[in-house]
Amino acid sequence: MKCSYACGTDEHVIARRQFIGGVAAGAGAVVGGLGVFARPASAAQLAKDQKRVVVVNMAGGLSQLESWDPKPGTDTGGPFRAIPTAVPGIHICELLPETAKQMQHLALVRSINTKENDHGKGGYAMFTGRRQTPAADYPRIGAVAAKALSPETSSLPGHIVITPGGSGGRGSDSAYLGPKYSSISLGDGKPPQNTELPGTISEQAELARQAFRRKTNDRFALRRRTAMTDAYTANYEQALELMKQREIFDITKEPQQDHDRYGQHDFGRHCLLARRLLESGITFVQVTHSNYDTHNENFNFHLEQVGEFDTPFATLVADLADRGMLESTLIIVLSEFGRTPAINQNYGRDHWGTAWSICLGGAKIQPGAVIGKTNDNGTAVADREVDHGHLFHTYMQAVGVDSTGTFDVDGREIPIADPAASPISELIA
Asked: Which of 93, 235, 240, 414 qualifies as a FRET site for 358, CA 20 to 30 Å off?
């Protein structure tokens, strides 16, 4: 559903970038041939054990009161009821009946206070675990997950962002981790651009072209090899390997019954694509559902938009559980902030970073847990206040990454997560 009455900030315009430097940027010392991109014989076992992350970005600011923390019967509660879930004692909004059936796999954090009501800064905080500052740029969670969790032998990109209209472009969201871990945007259930050999080039001609390129690279490297030339070479080799596996991005290969279960709309198709990518060994997949910036007509909009979210998301959770992937896959449903408990004169809710909620599950997250609470009408956190820094540490710990550790970036030790924060320990099983 398209929201035509959002606040109109630049963050609501989805960037479409050109696919630069090949389909997937690589790094490392690879000269000539496939090098580290050849999969080992134990790939099947590695794929089974590999930790993965899927994020659903409810872009624009999902209302916690119309989702994870309903307050029916109060002056701020709005018209919707709270319904019981599969976990006794946990109630969520009636707009999420299918998700309620999967609550035994999920957990809620109801006490978030990021103190941030700006779309761009709020999104930055939630995706990096840090506040935005001119002094430094930090990698988004997808880049961190790809760096920390992707097997060195993988020929697939580790950081995929699925959006309506996503064109295969490369993001600029990996900061100091480098372009190897920046995102590739996908959409419409199609493989990335530039992953199919042009019809004017025969297979024999292509083999000859690549053989010549490798021979030239090897000769050049004898005298002038640098990290940059290795990165270019790795980029080409990973792109060639990805071309061989482009079918993993093609959801037309999925059974029709799965298309029917997920739904014949963008979000349903994108959740099905996310499942396919996770099954194929992609480390991090982000699905975007927008636009929740409901300054006007909040209730009508959430009735339709949350209704569209509910079945595909619940189906994805159920499928990951049924396929034995939930123990190794972290699920996160987040926004850049929540919505105001106060209802404005246009029957809308405004930006609210003071007391709101997210949903998560899988991996080491304690199933059925509820962390924190807000007061009776949802205007303030009443117990166990946390922020974006605590959440980021928790995400990393949930997939087995020591969030107090560091990345070695050109000889500098840079903390994986904000050293001033810590995980939500009671949420980690």
From this structure: 414
* 240 vs 235: CA distance, rounded Å: 9
Between residues 183 and 152, which one has the greater pLDDT?
Answer: 183
Count of other CB atoms within 10 angstroms of residue 33: 14
Give the Cα separation of 120 and 367 in Å (integer): 31
Angstrom distance (rounded) from CA 20 to CA 26:
12
> What single string gives the DSSP state of each residue in 23-44?
SS---SS--SS-GGGSPPTTHH
Report domain extents, the chain. Answer: 10-427
For the chain, what percent of residues have pLDDT higher than 70?
A: 87
CA atoms within 13 A on the CB side of 163: 22
Domain topology for 10-427: Alkaline Phosphatase, subunit A (3.40.720)
- Round to whole Å and give the CA distance between 263 and 312: 7
108: which residues sit within 8 A by CB, 6+ positions away? Answer: 68, 69, 90, 92, 357, 358, 359, 369, 370, 371
pTM for the model: 0.86
Query: Average pLDDT in the 132-136 region?
Result: 93
